[in-house]
Amino acid sequence: MSSIRNIVILTGAGISAESGIDTFRGAGGLWENHRVEDVATPEAFARDPELVLRFYDARREAIQRVEPNRAHHALARLDAEWTGDLLIVTQNVDDLHERAGARRVLHMHGTHLSAWCTACDARHEWRGQLIDRPACPACGAVALRPDIVWFGEMPYRMEEIFGALVEADLFVSIGTSGAVYPTAGFVQEAAAYGACTLELNLEPSQGSHLFGESRLGPAGELVPTFVS
Ligand code: BV8
So what's the ipTM on this one? Predict the structure, then answer.
């Protein structure tokens, strides 16, 4: 990696699969026995807030019972040792990258451990449940929702992400199906600005043909090898 200075790494649900967190599409499009449109859109939350809050309470609770795996630890090592620019853009809402020790992490779809007050816009670290409609610690309103980017909502910090893609010498995608936009277009953005592109995934993704190189296998094996 001699001529490479700036790296962008995109991770998806596949990097957390070996930690025991279900991926979204491995189960044939169902997600914890729910259709995505019934639990991960603002319309779903408006229509049935209890269903959506129970769904996210269950995932927030489950996420605190699992551990980072070898892939998370390998990326954390790279983050600690890499002297150039490095940005781990994750679609995942778990905190396994951080718990493995990674620091330069950007959660573009939000995180499970944060609650967002739609009355005063405050964000709060949140490890408990939301189903009982607790009051916002800042303004007292009963207006907390998961701090998660749902379908139809703008992902977080897109300008920062595109700025990193423009400067990247290497773009690596790990454990994502390439099914969700605008994320699925990042590889083309990076390549357009001259980056080398590498995909590490269990099976061919919807975007495999867009990568300079695609390696197939479990992240727990491919990522430590890539980092070493
Ligand atoms: C937006 C939070 C615009 C919820 C999620 C074109 C352009 C722009 C938008 C669109 C477009 N076409 C359609 C859209 C709309 C939509 C979209 O993309 N729909 C899809 C379904 C077609 N996109 C949006 O709505 C986005 N917003 O575009 O806003 C806008 C503009 C102006 C103003 C307002 C808005 C927002 C998308 C974010 C939705 N939220 N998550 C939650 O987590 O609860 S997305 C959800 O899917 C997850 O975040 C997840 O990260 C993401 C992608 O899934 P993956 O991570 O890839 O997981 P998946 O299961 O699919 O795949 C796992 C992969 O891992 C597999 O390939 C598997 O082989 C591999 N794997 C499994 N095990 C392993 C492994 N690999 C390695 N090792 C293993 N062990």
Answer: 0.94
Q: How far is the CA of 38 from the centre of ligand 1 (A)?
A: 15
218 lines ligand 1 (CB under 6 A): yes
Claim to verify: residue 137 and residue 208 sit in the same structural domain = no
Q: How many domains does the chain have?
A: 2
Report CA(206)–ligand 1 centroid distance (Å): 12
Q: Say how far apart CA 2 and CA 81 lie, in whole Å.
A: 14
Q: 3: Cβ–Cβ under 8 A, 6 or more apart, which residues?
A: 169
Classify residue 122 by its DSSP letter: -
163-187: pLDDT as tens digits = 999 999 999 999 999 989 999 999 9
Residues 61 and 72 in one domain: no
Residue of 10, 21, 24, 114 best suited for mutating to test ligand 1, as the one with most atoms within 8 Å of CB: 24
Same domain, 59 and 17: no
* Whether 12 and 118 share a structural domain: no
**Residue 107: what residue type?**
H
C-beta of 149 in contact with ligand 1 (< 6 A): yes
207 is annotated as contributing to ligand binding: no
Domain that holds residue 128: 29-65+114-148
Give the pair of three-digit tokens for residue 139. 């303004």
Residues 43-95: tens digit of each pLDDT: 999 999 999 999 999 999 999 999 999 999 999 999 999 999 999 999 999 99
Are residues 54 and 73 part of one domain?
no
Q: Please give the Cα distance from 155 to 126 (Å, whole number).
A: 20
